[in-house]
Amino acid sequence: MLNIKELLEEIKASPYEEIEISVPHTGTVEFTGLKVGDKVKGPSGEWKEKPGTVLAKLTRERNTKNITAPEKGEIVSIRQDLEGSFVEAGEVLIKIRHFLSKEEVIQLILKKALFLFNAPEKAKYYFTPEVDAKIKGSGERSVKVTEGMDLFIVSRMKRETALNYSGPEGLIYSVYFNNGDNVDAAQPLIGVCPADQLKQIQEVVNRVQSEWEEVD
């Protein structure tokens, strides 16, 4: 069994992730004057429609595109030696240290602590009408799942098929999609918590919400 409290202590020891910013296609790189230690912002707005800080510009065939920060954080390295150079797709330009938010810490813990039932193929997914009604009425944790339970409808190429649950018995603790979403293969649909671990997981979630200090 995963030691959730030990996992939380590990995250506290390194409360960030480093994000590598690479070029999406070939082109000539121009940096924007940012330096190591500078703070950058991620996308903002209700729909994340406002792009993050411009980190660099990439020009190919007189067409220039901005490379922007995907998350807020602090720059830890910049490949200044590539300034003005023609680079190949995938070349890493900048590394950003992104400090985890409360919600990100909780999701990280849950994805390690819960049993993740993943999408078997890329398709649109729906809960069955009975399960969907129960979730909307009483929340996902009101749904107990068992091996072979009729749980999902899979829609692909205008054909719908049933998808039964396969995994340990427990309660649906997290839902990682919205009905009708296109979900990639191997991406989680739900996270299931055994009933006897529910109290322990909720205690850790409450602890993170009350104690975690976010870095601006």
TrEMBL record:
Top-level division of the source organism's lineage: Bacteria
UniProt protein name: Biotin-requiring enzyme
